[in-house]
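Try this one yourself first.
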């Protein structure tokens, strides 16, 4: 939704998200909804945006690594069948290695799926193209939208943070991530049509909160690909802050060549070039999240 003469046009926010008259996500009308209770003290954050190319996986990888630099134990869960977070950390999945596919299908537990210390303090539950098949295979499975939550609740007590990299679609995989999560971090690129798809995402978050996961909240909105030389970037940032208000992080992620190079070397930016502006930005983002007391 856009208005003439502006970059963004916002839906009306209520609670943490939007008013919506749509039916609850993935729940029949006669089903009794029991919200999952969490017993682990860690925080599970999904990084989600149905629009591709917004810096979602870059953020999932580098926020995870940056939190580790603050002596936090972090698990990164790759829920995208494209497995970019997996390859971006230099992991090549061997045949016997468990992935998020086996985790969701109940074929293997987290201990058999996670790879320890892919970066200092960072463990990874990798993905593979097989995960795309879970969309079909889980259709007839009971509690299909809670499979990830059940596994993470059972096995992630040792971590301070669990970061989930969602696919760029509002799918059953994304729904599993949202049901499992305490909050959602939304990357928003500083480009034209910046809020394209965000309205739909916020409506989905609102429906998930209403019917499946009442604890779900917006962790924050992260402005990515910011270029201070362009008036457009500044205009998008200004209008996004006017819409989302205090939900927008003070930290912005700039366009940075080193950020683009790091995945090709299979390394987080804090390992690849810790002094570059991209690394420093993600370190500041981690500090901002930690300063919120979560």
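Now uncover the answer:
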């Amino acid at each position: 939704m856009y208005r003439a003469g502006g970059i963004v046009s916002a839906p009306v926010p209520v609670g943490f998200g939007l008013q919506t008259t749509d039916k609850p996500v993935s729940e029949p009308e006669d089903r009794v909804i029991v919200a999952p209770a969490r017993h682990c003290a860690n925080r599970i954050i999904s990084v989600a945006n149905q629009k591709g190319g917004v810096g979602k996986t870059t953020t999932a990888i580098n926020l995870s690594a940056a939190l580790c630099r603050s002596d936090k134990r972090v698990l990164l869960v790759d829920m995208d069948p494209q497995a970019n977070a997996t390859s971006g950390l230099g992991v090549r999945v061997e045949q016997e290695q468990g992935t998020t596919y086996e985790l969701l299908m109940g074929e293997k537990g987290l201990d058999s799926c996670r790879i320890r210390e892919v970066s200092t303090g960072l463990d990874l539950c990798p993905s593979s193209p097989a995960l795309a098949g879970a969309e079909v295979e889980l259709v007839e499975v009971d509690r299909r939208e809670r499979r990830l939550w059940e596994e993470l609740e059972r096995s992630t007590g040792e971590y301070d943070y669990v970061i989930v990299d969602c696919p760029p679609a509002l799918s059953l995989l994304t729904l599993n991530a949202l049901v499992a999560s305490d909050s959602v971090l939304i990357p928003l690129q500083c480009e034209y049509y910046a809020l394209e798809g965000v309205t739909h995402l916020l409506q989905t978050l609102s429906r998930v909160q209403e019917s499946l996961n009442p604890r779900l909240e917006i962790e924050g909105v992260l402005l990515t690909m910011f270029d201070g030389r362009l008036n457009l970037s500044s205009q998008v940032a200004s209008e996004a802050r006017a819409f989302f208000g205090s939900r927008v992080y003070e930290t912005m992620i700039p366009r940075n060549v080193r950020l683009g190079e790091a995945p090709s070397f299979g390394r987080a930016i804090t390992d690849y070039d810790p002094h570059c502006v991209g690394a420093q930005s993600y370190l500041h983002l981690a500090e901002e999240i930690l300063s919120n007391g979560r």
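Discussion: Residues 277-291 form the longest helix (15 residues). The longest strand covers residues 217-226.
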